[in-house]
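Input chain follows. Return structure tokens only.
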Amino acid sequence: MFADLAFVWAAIIAFAVLAYVLFDGFDLGIGILFPFFKDKHDRGVMMNSVAPVWDGNETWLVLGGGGLLAAFPLAYAVVLPALYAPLIVMLLGLVFRGVAFEFRWRSQNNQELWDFGFATGSTLAAFAQGVALGALVQGIPVANRAYAGGWWDWLTPFSVLTGVALVVGYALLGATWLVMKTSGEVQREAHRLAWFAAIGTLVLIGIVSLATPFLDRVYMQRWFAWPAIIYTAPVPLLVAAAAMVLFWSLKQEWDALPFVAANGLFVLSYIGLGISFYPYIVPPKLSIWDAAAPTASLEFLIVGALVLVPMILGYTALSYWVFRGKVDPDAGYH
């Protein structure tokens, strides 16, 4: 029962992190793309496209972080000291972005300043998330059930690479979201930017994917050893298929399919990450079961999760359904 609950909670947290990336990724991407849109009205349309959902999207980040603390306290205690710097930068970026989102509409004289804050906060948050991910993938040293590394261990060429990759990937999600949700000049510019972001994302996915197996012998065995390669080979093939759908749908100037295909790239990349990680929650040594809370705690927590997760999914689905369709370019956010 203990092992099963640990696995279930690992799946819940993994789902929450993926949901955060998919739901909050495109509105962070809109902030990243802000400097490419010079017209104030166009920027307003971009913000209106995410105004009804952007703060609710961050619920998944709270669920992932809170779930990690509650269900895997040892992993939480190891990961936070290792990644304090990028996580603090991420949180500050999200704060600046959130404040700028609200104040932009209420400060006509300083609107450009708040636009800068929105773009900078979004870019910093995305980059810091990518750096934290890269640092986790390359491994966190653990000794006596505690973090055994230094303050700057998170900063490596690989973590910077993953930081840049996530910024470009979020830009792709933001651009394809705008293609789906807007019309006119905003949609045309988003469509143009989506091509560049798509090419950059795929190139960076390839570079990160090629570099990852060389970080640890376990990763190399997962992806290239026999018979594991039978199960892992479909992932890059599906990435190639999603890329073809993305480029084809952009060429056909479809509205929704580019966004679906871009999200497919993220889902497949996340699956690839899971293949490399499992069963470790803090690679290369701390497994799901090593880091799990006591059985009684997991049993208590799962009751709350069974109530809260469907509720979050329900109101998320409702909000996206209510605000479906194109954004009214003359509407305002208040």
